[in-house]
Write a structure and sequence with these properties.
The chain has helices at 16-24, 86-96, 111-119, 129-134, 166-178; strands at residues 31-34, 42-57, 77-80, 103-107, 124-128, 140-144, 151-159. It is an alpha/beta fold. The chain folds into 2 domains: 16-47 and 153-177, no CATH class; 48-150, D-Maltodextrin-Binding Protein, domain 2.
């Protein structure tokens, strides 16, 4: 980055919890990740959010619905990511609002494997809208949730109380203006 010789940006794909730990340990100044559910030591600056949807096989009874409610998923077989990703914890918290825990039958972090399992009608997947739109399986569809604040939101993670450097602020402003 010739225009900003004093800024070093590394794009490395890590799991959410690892990113949070690296920010907290000051190994890195910031990370882009999904909004933390339980962390009180992280400041979050939102970049973008998108609706979460339910990806189902066309043979699933839910495929006929125009919208779905979280409470309709009680005891239904769901595919999710594992505990190292914030989306897992976010889903747990949202289901608790309806006084039940989800029936996660698979915990996988590879989106292609997850959508393939949906294609095989082995479960349903709560995922970001872009996953539904980019899905390559013809026999699955995405159903929006009625709860419009059930979203996948990502942004910058910063250590709470640590001043934001001029260069990090430039990076934040640049990315937010491009999003």
């Amino acid at each position: 980055m010739q225009a900003y010789p004093d800024i070093k940006v590394d794009k490395i794909d890590y799991l959410d919890k690892f990113c949070e730990d690296m920010v907290m340990n000051e190994t890195i100044d910031t990370a882009i990740s999904i909004r933390p559910v339980h962390s009180t030591n992280i400041d979050f600056i939102s970049i973008k959010s998108e609706p979460l949807m339910l990806l189902v096989n066309k043979d699933n009874d839910f495929s006929k619905l125009k919208t779905i409610k979280l409470k309709d998923l009680k005891n239904k077989p769901l595919i999710t990511c594992d505990e190292r990703l914030e989306l897992y914890h976010y889903q747990i918290e949202r289901f608790k609002q309806y006084n039940f825990l989800p029936n996660f039958i698979y915990k996988i972090n590879e989106i292609e494997v997850m959508t393939s399992l949906v294609s095989q009608n082995r479960g349903m997947l709560i995922c970001a809208e872009h996953v539904c739109l980019e899905n390559r399986h013809d026999n699955v569809i995405g159903i929006p949730f009625e709860d419009k604040d059930f979203v996948w939101e990502y942004g910058f993670l910063l250590k709470k109380g640590k001043p934001i450097s001029k260069n990090i602020q430039k990076l934040i402003d640049f990315i937010i203006n491009k999003a």
